[in-house]
Please model this.
Amino acid sequence: MHAPSLQAPSAVVMIRPHRFHPNPETAQDNTFQQGGVGHTARAGLALASAARDEVSAAAARLQEAGIEVHVFDDHGERDTPDSVFPNNWFSTHSGGHIALYPMCAPNRRRERRSDIIDMLKANYRVQDVIDYSGLEYDGLFLEGTGAMVLDHLQRVAYTALSNRANEVVLERFCTHFNFEPLVFRTADGAGQAVYHTNVMMCIASRFALVGLELITDAARRAEVKRRLEESGRTVLALDQGQIEAFAGNAIELGGKNGPVLAMSSRGVARLSSAQRDVIARHAELLPLSVPTVEMAGGSVRCMIAGIHLARRSS
Model:
């Protein structure tokens, strides 16, 4: 068994949705999102079933790699079409800390679940829960590790400003959790701000995948690249097509044989051989097929909430 990594958690939370469909409340600012639920109830049921099966298969693949996966079912009683993306409403941090986040879409606010927090408290050492969700009433949002990509080693919170990433909330988070905010503006292929930083950026322990060309300010773009390189990481620049295939929406996890990089099969297929070679030197590339889930505008990283907490002794 390899030593645990501060950057790459070896345990995660995933949500298996039973009434999944692309969320109409998030479609306006998420250009990665596709279509609606279909024209018939049967089409909607087929979509939900496919998403549920994709989460089950992905969780099984992660478990085979030696990652502990806590799977919770969401039967959709509260109309939570995006519940498959739990990393937006909570995050966990070394030292026993949990953060709860203010969510932009009203129906996403219903995704917060006390049973998940209770499980974390029962199985891991939790000292406190800092709840920012009340800022929703002030129109201030910060959607967790979707809005921020955290360098846990250098304590930097890389953040693409958007409707879902407000600087005021970011400053509060960084003060409480001892991160330095590094913000930048972006534009995707449609000229819109990228809705979540984690669709264009992945920070692993020894490398980073970044859609540098989406950062609009040249000086800021150079600073992001410089800061990542100064941390000792190899920076792999992703182009617009790779970003659209969710190659940036990946997460490094601690497996039984060492680091694993979980990424959409679509994203893996778009990597160049040179990029694959760099990743292979530091982590096992683990492709996960989640095409139905990706219709909602997120992929593998969005589906995984890493647990950066110490286990309770049995």
Remarks:
- The mean pLDDT is 94.
- The chain has nine helices and 15 strands.
- The first helix runs from residue 41 to 64.
- Residues 130 and 196 are 21 Å apart (CA to CA).
